Amino acid sequence: MKVAATLLALAGSAAAFAPAQQQRASSALEAKPFSDALGAQAPLGLFDPLGLIADGDEDKFNTLREYEIKHGRVSMLAVTGYLVTAAGIRFPGAENIPDGLKAFPALLESRDGINVLLQMGAFFVVAEIVNRDADWLDNEAEFVGDYRNGALDFGWDKFDDATKLKKRAVELNNGRAAMMGIWGLVTHEMMGNSILPGGYLPGQ
């Protein structure tokens, strides 16, 4: 053991005196594709444990980024809806509908509830159609996930590049947090363990 420790110490000392050019070359070889992309930030940096984008394929990266943004946006709406209904807020006529996962079987018990579910399904279909880059328009998306299609702006074009990048990073990180959030909320509800203030458990 002492011999092994001595050899390791000598190897570490030798590395400290290696030529700077060799060290830079080694660092360049270790750099991962997309390590400087939006969302690759502290503390994890580029998080790709399965190596899905290790080949550096930009089209694949853009496709996966689009999936990430879309799921993040849906999850942000899901977390908001989950917490709002858990707070006791309902649309008129839905006061007796339980919150949490028990809302779905409760809606299936009445014709009005079924109509609500059908409207939700129709909304998802329309949203899936609308929220994409319209190739048939004379318009080019500014970045992956830009679905304005020359119609919706809300002052985006007035921001400088640094502000745009910051806001895109905020949306990406909020979406990531929301994906974990709705997963945690639903999982704890199914386990019967409340993580909401006051120990409230939706669906009970």
TrEMBL record:
GO CC terms of this entry: chloroplast; light-harvesting complex; membrane
Record-listed chlorophyll a binding positions: 68, 71, 171, 174
Residue sites binding chlorophyll b 3 per the record: 176
Location relative to the cell: Plastid, Chloroplast
InterPro entries (alphabetical): Chloro_AB-bd_pln, Chloroa_b-bind
Record's keyword terms, sorted: Chlorophyll, Chloroplast, Chromophore, Light-harvesting polypeptide, Photosynthesis, Plastid, Signal
Signal peptide range in chain numbering: 1-16
GO molecular function: chlorophyll binding
Gene3D superfamilies: Chlorophyll a/b binding protein domain (1.10.3460.10)
Gene Ontology biological-process entries: photosynthesis, light harvesting
Residues reported in the UniProt entry to bind chlorophyll b 1: 73
Domain of life, source organism: Eukaryota
Protein family membership: Belongs to the fucoxanthin chlorophyll protein family.
Function: The light-harvesting complex (LHC) functions as a light receptor, it captures and delivers excitation energy to photosystems with which it is closely associated. Energy is transferred from the carotenoid and chlorophyll C (or B) to chlorophyll A and the photosynthetic reaction centers where it is used to synthesize ATP and reducing power.
Record's protein name: Plastid light harvesting protein
Native organism: Ditylum brightwellii
Native organism taxonomy: Eukaryota, Sar, Stramenopiles, Ochrophyta, Bacillariophyta
